[in-house]
Amino acid sequence: MRFELYLESGPQRKRTWVYVPGLPGCVAFGPTTEQAIANTPDAIRERIDFLRRHGDDPPDPEPIELQVAEHVVERKFLGFGWQISASDREPLTEAEVARELRWAEWSREELVAAARAQTIPLTESPPARGRSAAAILSHVAGSEWSYVSSNLGTLPGYSAAIAAIESAGSEPWAALAAERETLMARLRSMTPEDLARVVEREGRPPQTSRRMLRRMLEHEWEHALELRARL
């Protein structure tokens, strides 16, 4: 199966992120562009395994063929999924929305499971540097509200939802579930106009419903993998 790749790296093409829009949520990383691309087949397989674990039946991707569609070489954009793929401009269908919201539910389950399994207190930063697990959960929640608001408009309740997660310390589970349910309710209510909308802002990539959900899935999966790697 052929997958188009969208890359971001600094000007020296060292640390690099790879996004795979054809498999929403799939991301790969590497200390160099070459290594990031080399890591991508395993990232695709891991994403496929994730879907199968939850009962989905994606097509077998083997043999995997990779094609670099775009490479953004700008330090300020590194790791933010800045570019927009050609497919991102295509309106989502109702079936695709249902599928990707289902994937988001599974992704949240795995993020929470990885956070609960941490061997150090949730609010404690790991010895090897980086955010605490509690900070990661708050970061993921805040980011997904940003993705949704950038396309659907400001959603009420953001500040209260994130504050509840942050103030919960080592027991953020109820606040995290409430935050996600509020967000998912808005996504489930998207109209055909919402699904076809393209939001253009000067100096920023166009925002579409397809890109919005893709970035939600990518970002949460990225941090679920980060927490799993600490175990």
* Count, helices: 7
Task: Tell me the major beta sheet.
Answer: 4 strands, mixed
What is the C-level CATH assignment of the largest domain?
A: Mainly Alpha
CATH homologous superfamily designation of the largest domain:
dinb family like domain
- CATH architectural type of the largest domain: Up-down Bundle
Strand content: 5-15%
According to DSSP, the number of beta strands is: 6
Mean pLDDT metric: 93
Shape: globular
User: Any low-confidence stretches, pLDDT <50, length ≥5?
Assistant: none
* Helix/sheet category: alpha+beta
Strand order within the widest beta sheet: 3-2-1-4
C-alpha Rg (nearest Å): 17 Å
Order of helices and strands: EEEHEHHHHHEEH
Summed up, the domain count is: 2
Approximate helicity band: 40-55%
Q: Report the end-to-end length measured between terminal Cα atoms.
A: 32 Å
CATH topology call of the largest domain: Four Helix Bundle (Hemerythrin (Met), subunit A)
Question: Which key phrases capture this entry?
Answer:
Double Stranded RNA Binding Domain, 231 residues, 4-stranded mixed sheet, 13% strand, single chain, Four Helix Bundle (Hemerythrin (Met), subunit A), alpha+beta, 2 domains, two-stranded antiparallel sheet, globular
Could you walk me through the main structural features you see in this protein, from its secondary elements to its overall organization?
The protein has 231 residues and is α+β, with helices and mostly antiparallel strands. It has 2 domains: 76 residues, Double Stranded RNA Binding Domain, CATH 3.30.160; 142 residues, dinb family like domain (Four Helix Bundle (Hemerythrin (Met), subunit A), Up-down Bundle). It is 50% helix and 13% strand. The protein contains 7 helices and 6 strands; from the N terminus they run E-E-E-H-E-H-H-H-H-H-E-E-H. It has a 4-stranded mixed β-sheet. Strands 5-6 form a two-stranded antiparallel sheet. The longest helix has 23 residues. The chain is globular, with a radius of gyration of 17 Å. The chain starts with a strand and ends with a helix. The mean pLDDT is 93.
